[in-house]
Amino acid sequence: MIRENPSVPILTGLVLLVLGVVIGGELLQDPSANDDPTVARPLRPVARAQGRQPAPSSAKLGASLVFISFGAGLSLYGFRQSKRQGLLLRDGVPVVGRVVHIHHERKRSSRLTYRFVDDQGQVREGVYATLFAGGPLDELQVGTEVTVVYDATDSRRHTLDVDHVRRADAELRRL
């Protein structure tokens, strides 16, 4: 099954990527570039009042690299899933399925379970999970017909057509 909302890993990955670049950018700045030669500096460093020491540059560099690598990986994963979902909606086989279970976990998320029959007569079941409630899933009830698009070569890869991109094709196949 394909993850239904690839925008979540894309956005999370981009936030982590930017955070890593910001942390790494602080290390790349030359500390003497901000010093004004006309301003007097104390001869001895000022003692820290709370005893808190700044993080060493190696720790900042390590954190920066971790954020950048996780952010880039998560973003690439999200973009890859988005491309797969688009190809499946474009090239997949649309069929009519039925909603068999709806579960609202919190105010903001819900899970919808659906079943459909592929061309080989296999009954398949899938789950569509949303992070944010609202939109087309609020209208659906148990027993409602939905459009499911599956891959003709591997019917285990399927997705729910929430935006009704292939609804007319599924209706024609049923007749």
What this model shows, in words?
It is built from three helices and five strands. It has 175 residues and is α+β, with helices and mostly antiparallel strands. A five-stranded antiparallel sheet has the order 3-2-1-4-5. The mean pLDDT is 77.
Secondary structure layout:
Elements: H1 7-28, H2 57-91, E1 93-104, E2 110-117, E3 123-130, E4 145-150, E5 158-160, H3 167-174
Antiparallel strand pairs: 1-2, 1-4, 2-3, 4-5
Helix pairs in contact: 1-2
Task: Please summarize what this structure is.
With 175 residues, the chain is of the alpha+beta class. It is built from 3 helices and 5 strands, in the order H-H-E-E-E-E-E-H.
Given the C-alpha coordinates, what overall shape results?
elongated
Largest sheet: 5 strands, antiparallel
Enumerate the spans where pLDDT stays under 50 for 5 or more consecutive residues. none
Kindly state the mean pLDDT as a whole number?
Answer: 77
User: Multimeric state of these chains?
Assistant: single chain
Based on CA atoms alone, the radius of gyration comes out at 26 Å
Helical proportion, percent range:
25-40%
User: Which structural class do you get from the secondary structure elements?
Assistant: alpha+beta
Task: Describe the structure using short key phrases.
alpha+beta, five-stranded antiparallel β-sheet, 3 helices, 21% strand
